[in-house]
Write a structure and sequence with these properties.
single chain; alpha/beta; TIM Barrel; eight-stranded parallel β-sheet; 9 helices; 8 strands
């Protein structure tokens, strides 16, 4: 597996060279991460807190760690001291816990709100009503230790590219809508995290600013 060659090949296909590549390193050994780092990667995505905790001290300090999996509230404290961006904030309860742990650590933690855009029940994320309820809550403006930097979404796992495109469009439209609303200052719509190994080009065409690519870089799961 030539990780450097894979990365070069992927970057050549990028439609938007400003789109940030998150190397999804879950289940991969440290040697693979170090190879990707040597090839210029600084953003690594993990989906398990335990794995993040184990890998973080073993990698250079300038690595930006992204939590891309489903995060349970009781695990936030383990990554709060060092996490760069939490992609999968799918409830107000979780957001409040991240805020609490940010305060404890003297940090403002950057997050993305995960929106349920797929036609699959197994995917996590806010639906429209839950999002509106959170924005309307009197507790929402009191969050002083989080920065909402945008939205994240996962498309349906399907070969129907038009369906995938529609789902990405839905996320982009919601992003623009939230961007134009009067919300507290910690809501700064800068990023849309959408697109993985199989659909990152469609995601870029639909406005993604971050793509999460694993198997195309590192091969299948270890």
């Amino acid at each position: 597996m030539d990780i450097k060659a894979n990365l070069e090949a992927i970057k050549k296909t990028f439609i938007n060279q400003h789109c940030r590549l998150i190397a999804v390193s879950k289940t991969k050994p440290l040697s693979d991460l170090k190879e990707a780092y040597a090839a210029g990667i600084r953003d690594f995505g993990e989906n398990k807190v335990q794995e993040l905790q184990a890998k973080h001290p073993e990698m250079p300090d300038d690595v930006r760690w992204h939590m891309i999996g489903h995060l349970q509230s009781n695990k936030v404290k383990h990554i709060a001291p060092f996490i760069h961006l939490i992609h999968g904030v799918d409830s107000f309860k979780l957001l409040r816990e991240i805020n609490k742990q940010g305060k404890k650590n003297g940090r403002t933690i950057s997050v993305l709100l995960q929106i349920h855009i797929a036609h699959e029940e197994s995917k996590f994320g806010f639906d429209r009503n839950e999002l509106e309820e959170m924005f309307a809550s009197p507790d929402f403006p009191l969050l002083g230790n989080v920065r909402i930097q945008g939205l994240m979404g996962m498309a349906t796992f399907t070969y129907d590219t038009e369906q995938v495109r529609r789902e990405f469009k839905t996320l982009k439209n919601l992003f623009e809508e939230i961007k134009n609303r009067k919300l507290p200052g910690f809501v700064q719509m800068e990023h849309i995290s959408m697109g993985m190994s199989g659909d990152y080009l469609i995601a870029q065409e639909e406005g993604s600013t971050m793509v999460r690519i694993g198997s195309a870089i590192f091969g299948g799961r270890s």
